[in-house]
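INTERNAL AUDIT FORM
Audit reference: QA-55
Scope: verify that the stored structure record matches its stored sequence.
Auditor: D.O.
Record contents follow.
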Amino acid sequence: MGNIILWDAELNKEYTVENILLENTVSRRLEALGINEGTPITVLTRKRSGALIAKIRGTRLALGKYITSNIEVKEVKKC
């Protein structure tokens, strides 16, 4: 399976951040929050308002649709 955008990720599955396709100011803010390439991420819920709530490094974080539509992730295969 190839890369998908975070917004399209399935609920309660573990993914790894592959690429962040956002302007520098936003990507630096995400890095400060612990979101960078290789970070494990699990989508917990997706709200109608466009917010996505994810578990990142043990913390729940809400991200907007614009941001999650510009983060590429890859599913972690469990053996």
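Auditor finding: record pair retrieved intact. The chain has a mean pLDDT of 93.
Action required: none
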